[in-house]
Write a structure and sequence with these properties.
This protein is mainly alpha-helical. The chain is built from ten helices and four strands, in the order ααααβααββαβααα. The N and C termini lie far apart (50 Å).
Length: 195
């Protein structure tokens, strides 16, 4: 998954430039077929696309790095997956344009909708802010912001609770104490006798 992230983040490596030049050639990472004459590692990376898609999104800038139909920039996610190929024909766009084709001077300029699906797509455009630079975003489906922050503090030894308890003279295991507070019906999990 790191290699996929590097492709979207445009990490300044020779490998990223090589992949864009040799294998992608201006196409979306999500739409290129898996070539049989490629290396084992490139085929494996392409097979991971379905797993990686939910974790990648974009903050929109100029739209020059974002594929309109294949990248996840819209609140509905990947437009081609959500609305199907027919919607691209209704929109009057070919299958591979960049998002920059509908952004002019930092504002949305999409042709009039010719289908209900396009109306649905266009109705959500005012909710999407346009910045200065296209920025890939690595999402986590399980991360709750508060939990992520607490974990970050823990890794940086920023949680002072155990330290404060040691100042009060507490030397026991906090986990055992927590389990003792559980209802007597749950004590069988700990092997301890409730008191």
């Amino acid at each position: 998954m790191v290699h996929i992230w590097n492709l979207f983040a445009k990490a300044g490596s020779i490998w990223v430039v090589w992949v864009e030049t040799v294998w992608l050639r201006g196409k979306s990472f999500w739409q290129v077929p898996i070539p049989q004459n490629s290396s084992w590692s490139w085929r494996k990376i392409l097979k991971l696309r379905l797993l990686a898609r939910p974790f990648l999104s974009f903050k929109i800038g100029t739209g020059s790095r974002i594929f309109m139909w294949y990248d996840s920039w819209h609140p509905a996610g990947c437009l081609i997956e959500k609305y199907g190929l027919r919607t691209t024909y209704d929109a009057g766009h070919n299958i591979g344009p960049m998002l920059s084709s509908i952004i002019k001077n930092g504002e949305w300029h999409w042709k009039s909708a010719r289908s209900e699906r396009l109306v649905e797509i266009q109705c959500r455009l005012p909710d999407i802010s346009i910045g200065n630079k296209d920025t890939p975003i690595r999402k986590s489906s399980t991360a709750i912001p508060r939990h992520s922050f607490i974990l970050w503090l823990a890794f940086r030894d920023g949680l002072t609770t155990k330290y404060r308890m040691s100042l009060w003279g507490y030397t026991g295991s906090m986990i055992v104490e927590l389990l003792i507070l559980l209802s007597p019906g749950m004590m069988w999990l700990t092997g301890l006798k409730g008191g």
